[in-house]
Amino acid sequence: MRVSIFGTGYVGLVTGTCLAEVGHQVVCVDVDAAKVRGLEEGVVPIYEPGLTPMVKANHAAGRLRFTTDAADALDFGEVIFIAVGTPPDEDGSADLQYVLAVARSIGEHMQRPSVVVNKSTVPVGTADKVRAAISEALANRGIDIPFQVVSNPEFLKEGDAINDCMRPDRIVVGAQDEDAVAMMRRLYAPFNRNHDRMMTMDVRSAELTKYAANAMLATKISFMNEIANIAEKVGADVEMVRKGIGSDPRIGWHFIYPGAGYGGSCFPKDVQALTRTASQYGYQARVLDAVEAVNDAQKGHLFELMLRHYGNAEALRGKTIAVWGLAFKPNTDDMREASSRRLLAQLWEAGARVRAFDPEARDESRRIFGERSDLVLCDSADAALEGADALAVVTEWKQFRSPDFAMLKRKLSDAVVFDGRNLYEPIDVETQGLAYWGIGRGRSV
Ligand code: UGA
């Protein structure tokens, strides 16, 4: 099939590339000419394992191309995806200006009956707004072309997006019309060979499904962080508790890892946006309010542990803290809403210096923080330890999982490890003569 995708951000690029990989003809449109030129030359602007070779291979095979020309894309595609960003507004609701700008552009250039598929994460009711924007643009041209608006939310995880896209656990399609469903079925047939993973429903339910999925996962994390905080108070070890509850299949093992709080471009934004949608309909989403409040506090928890260790903020003045991990999670260079940002701000506020290492997020952190005398971005985990007083682990990159604790003891002059992702067993660290602080590991009784 011929597919046009508006937006070459994370979702658009991964989706377009995977659709090309299974044999569809795909054109990706973006307003950013430099980005489009780069993509045509195989320069992928985001770090996502496996994506660059796949983009290059499909481009070379003639199944994937990039353009700034919306008219070309509308002339080409039978299925038109909207996959542009929905950043939060000042009040936390999703800003639809990019989605609606694409919708207008679709209406301005549409040549034949089309299925318009919204893949951006958008509040319930957005499909109606997209439909209205397209209709208005068509009316301005004085023509009437039939079209359908379908909701097809994405469930990609950064760092594992290719796998999620190629082997989806579900494909949610919200549509009003049988023909549109049939079109989506043809499009996704290559992903549906052995099991039918496509679920069809009404448009609003599909839109809400996306938010409900992310809000549920965020809730599990905040719940577990709350249990960790209680564990610290009562002298229990949350890692034992996690094992104790995860074995119940109704609870499950996923997303119950306590830590330094959730970040990224999705959970923080989507929890807030769903809360806003609820309040616009006169409902106060109390669970979601709490999920957000717990997460916000949790981002400051590592610093709290430092205060407990050192006694007060004044004692941190002049200290050098090695920080392992800046990205909001492993296998990405994305630092949006990353817990590291809060920790660094708190350390700087207290007059401490930071030597940080992240395997991928160095350029991104340079872009965010610029040059500053209290931040050294290091080339390796070991280099971050040079001259450091203490170590804080903020992102659970695999390479941080089994450090040489004897070496840590030699290098860290205050001999203390703050483990924001519970990567280590306290006993392994302590037997080397280091103090250990983890999340929810029963330390403050
Ligand atoms: C999330 C969802 O997992 C995807 O299913 C969804 O498609 C995506 O948002 C989206 O809406 O686009 P992502 O933001 O890439 O994906 O990252 P996650 O792997 O979900 O991690 C989010 C944050 O939660 C990270 O900061 C991670 O460290 C934290 N986390 C995760 C925990 O603190 N504990 C856990 O047990 C799991």
From the structure above, extract its key features.
alpha/beta, UDP-Glc/GDP-Man_DH_C, binds uridine-5'-diphosphate-glucuronic acid, UDP-glucose 6-dehydrogenase activity, UDP-glucose 6-dehydrogenase, elongated, Rossmann fold, six-stranded parallel β-sheet, 445 residues
What does this structure look like?
Helix 6 (126-140) links the parallel strand 5 and strand 6. The protein folds into two domains: 2-201, 3-Layer(aba) Sandwich (Rossmann fold), CATH 3.40.50; 202-445, 3-Layer(aba) Sandwich (Rossmann fold), CATH 3.40.50.720. It is built from 18 helices and 14 strands. The chain is elongated. The termini are far apart. With 445 residues, the chain is an alpha/beta fold. Residues 121, 154-158, 214, 217, 221, 255-257, 259, 262-264, 266-267, 328-329 line the site of uridine-5'-diphosphate-glucuronic acid.
**Content of β-strand:** 5-15%
| Small ligands present | uridine-5'-diphosphate-glucuronic acid
Terminal CA distance: 63 Å
Estimate the helix proportion, in percent. Answer: 40-55%
Determine and state the CATH class of the largest domain.
Answer: Alpha Beta
EC number: 1.1.1.22
Catalytic activity: UDP-alpha-D-glucose + 2 NAD(+) + H2O = UDP-alpha-D-glucuronate + 2 NADH + 3 H(+)
Keywords: NAD, Oxidoreductase
GO molecular function, one term: NAD binding
Task: Write the SSE topology.
Blueprint lengths: L1 E5 L3 H12 L3 E5 L3 H8 L10 H10 L3 E4 L2 H7 L2 E4 L14 H13 L4 E5 L7 H15 L6 E5 L9 H6 L4 E4 L3 H11 L9 E4 L1 H32 L3 H9 L20 H14 L5 H13 L2 H10 L9 E5 L14 H11 L3 E5 L4 H8 L5 E3 L3 H5 L4 E4 L11 H7 L4 E4 L6 H5 L4 E3 L8
Helix pairs in contact: 1-3, 4-5, 5-6, 9-11, 9-12, 11-12
The chain binds uridine-5'-diphosphate-glucuronic acid.
